[in-house]
Structure prediction request, 265 residues.
Amino acid sequence: MKQFALWQAPFYSFWSKSFYVDVAKNWRGVAYSYLFLLICFTWVFMAIKKQMDLSYYVEHSINPIVQQMPVVTIDKGILSIDCPSPCTLKDSLGLPAVTFDTREKPMGIDEMPGNFLITKDSVYAKGQPSDQKIDLSTMKDHTVIDKKVAKQFLADFCKSVGLIVFMIAVPLCFIFCILQSLLYALMGILITRLNKVELSYPALIRLSVMAMTPVLFIDSIIKVRGLDYAIWLVWPLVAFLITCGYLIFGISVQIVSENNKPESV
Prediction:
């Protein structure tokens, strides 16, 4: 009979020997429902962080550019603006960011002062390894974009980006973690055979999922604190070692539990 409930796993997975014994001996299945709920829980905070970061970036970096924006009209694939061309928008530091050039012979990409050039039929962006181009000629509808429309679009996008990140990240992370748990369980088979302990493959998968729990929590804290860019080179290796350590810990307590069983008369 189970001694620990599902909701207790995030806490006891960090330290409890009896918890790992219970997971291996008394739990059923492969604990993927628990894994999915755990990933959802951790990604709620990470998605909120991403939304807050984007909102801050838009407010301080994009909106100052939008504030200078002319009224843009696209009619049957031809773009026009309500001010003399070329027109260059500057960022918050006063550096050129976006240039509108709707003349019949617009400037070339090498001549544009910022990273974006918008002509009457195309949008160009400087980039590596090559420049990018978006063709406006396919837009047949009559479209008018002014500061208000642009700001409203950015505000709506910022409000929804957290949900977008959550909906994309959770399934991908869940699939990745499932694959990891299967590989860790294979490692567990080798460890159990070397130590002559009986554990089924589903039990080893459950132990692998619990061994991954501390890493998933630590990973979410790192991302929420914005430290992932500073340690992205070493964190995967550290996460692997931590998970392996907990898996070995989970298997070792099974060995101790088996050795402490009273012998049948």
Observations:
- The chain has a mean pLDDT of 90.
- The chain has two domains: 6-53+158-259, 70-145.
